[in-house]
Amino acid sequence: MRKLLVLALVGLVAQLIDGSLGMAYGLTSSTLLLVAGVAPAAASASVHLAEIGTTLAAGVAHWRFGNVDWRVVSRIALPGAIGAFAGATVLSSISTESAAPWMAGILFTLGAYLLVRFARPLRTDRVGGRLRGRFLSPLGLVAGFVDATGGGGWGPVATPALLVSGRLEPRKVIGSVDTAEFVVAGAASIGFLIGLGTEGFLLPTVAALLVGGLIAAPLAAWLVRIVPAQLLGAAVGGVIVLTNARTLIRSAELDGPVRPALYALLAAGWLAALALAVRALRRTRRARATAAEAATAGPAAEPAGACPVAPVGSPAVSADLAATGTSTPR
User: Fold this and answer.
1) Max Cα separation, the chain?
2) How far is CA 51 from the centre of its chain?
3) What gap in Å lies between CA 147 and CA 185, rounded to an integer?
4) Are the C-beta atoms of residues 230 and 117 closer than 8 Å to each other?
5) 67 partner at 20 to 30 Å CA-CA among 22, 60, 149, 314?
6) In whole angstroms, what is the distance from residue 136 CA to residue 265 CA?
């Protein structure tokens, strides 16, 4: 019972992270299950089965908060499902001894990517245009395959790619990716069911992760508006890197002073990424504050009683013409 309560708490925290970042539910949950000694295929299968419920709840919550672009969901979900089914089939056919370092390597790489990604300023000012299917379909295919073979990766692959494109609001990127993941998780679960059978799913673990995720889903959809993704992404990336480094170091049979030296190096990198994330967050907030002050100081700089005159052809004059119906401004 104690273990199930811990897993439920992990599911809750993982869903809070996923709903706020648009990634890391699978990474967080799969990493913990691997540390607990669960076979890689069983860990990924159980996480994806739990994700069917958590992503459904997350998708509904994001939809209610207006965070979903259904055009993006429709273009990315089906290719993601195909990639996830293929990835589940591949992972099911690999032995546990071979799959463990493979899965840890994928999770380590994705965790390092999170560190690098969130240590730099997040670009959120280029919103406009449309995302094309020739970009979304391959992205979904790759993200789905990595997600199933690594026990997580849909969000870390899809979310940054959509954010970098700059053609969708960050909250809609996160909401759309989380909503499409429902289809991806279902396809991966079918692939694992065919490859492993029902015994490949740890149903008590699935239930615990699902309960925690369902509790957190509505709160996560609200937190995406207020939680600083910069710090959260860097923190989660460091945890994933350090945890999966343990498996990789063991599989490489590195002993003696090399092991603590590697851990110290990774920890130093994590701290450096956190420091850079804090600095980037402060710079972003200062820039926003400066822009807000400039916007409010503009009208106040006019002399008292003055009547500002806008040049002919400006938006202000055009609005005045439209309001008066005359050919010249009054």
Assistant:
1) 86
2) 14
3) 9
4) no
5) 149
6) 37
Nearest to 26 by CA among 116, 149, 139, 175: 149
Asked if residues 191 and 89 have their Cβ atoms less than 8 Å apart, the reply is yes
- Locus of tokens 């002073």: 257
In this predicted structure, the answer to whether residue 327 has a pLDDT above a threshold of 50 is no
Tokens of 8: 């439920």
Contact yes or no for 106/157 (Cβ under 8 A) = no
**1/19 Cα distance (integer angstroms):** 27
Q: What is the pLDDT of residues 145-167, one digit of tens each?
A: 988 887 777 877 787 778 766 67
For residue 302, how many other CB atoms are within 10 A of its CB? Answer: 10
Helix (H, G, I), strand (E, B) or coil at 168: coil
C-beta separation of 248 from 266 below 8 A: no
The 10s digit of each residue's pLDDT in 243-277 is 778 778 877 777 778 888 888 999 899 899 888 88
Rounded to 10°, the helix 258-300/229-251 angle is 170
- Please identify which residue in the block is written with the tokens 């926003």: 288
* DSSP structure string for 187-256: HHHHHHHHHH-GGGS-HHHHHHHHHHHHHHHHHHHHHTTTS-HHHHHHHHHHHHHHHHHHHHHHHTT--T
Alpha carbons within 13 A on the beta-carbon side of 218: 3
Return the half-sphere exposure (C-beta side, CA atoms, 13 A cut-off) of residue 60.
9
Q: Are 51 and 26 in contact (CB under 8 A)?
A: yes
Tell me 129's DSSP state. S
